[in-house]
Amino acid sequence: MQFIAHCEETDKRSLKGALKPNEDVTLLIGPEGDFSDKEIALALENNFQPVTLGNTRLRTETAAVVACHSVVFFNEVSN
Question: CB within 8 A of 3, min separation 6: which ones?
Fold first, then answer.
């Protein structure tokens, strides 16, 4: 599964709701200031699904840790 977590106000699913048990995950986390519109469009053209990590805006390094933990936790609970 391929995801992009960005801050633009678009229709996005929660990462938790988009995950499927025990599937490989590629998740793009934006740099400080977020992805450019062109980068988001390119990811979407390449079948990345837009997701949100929650209602708060996270720093890049924090978002990566939260996303990885979310995937691991989801798979532990799903087993």
Answer: 15, 18, 25, 26, 27, 28, 48, 49, 50, 51
Order of strands across the sheet that contains 26-29: 13-14, 49-52, 2-5, 26-29
* Residue 17 host element (H or E): helix 15-18
3-state secondary structure of 75: helix
pLDDT digits (tens, 9 = 90+) for 10-25: 889 999 999 999 899 9
Entry field: residues in the chain: 79
Tokens of 51: 């997701």
> CA–CA separation, 22 vs 60, rounded Å?
25
Query: What kind and span of H or E run contains 4?
Result: strand 2-5
Contact predicate 15/46, CB 8 Å = no
**Residue 10: both structure tokens together:** 């678009």
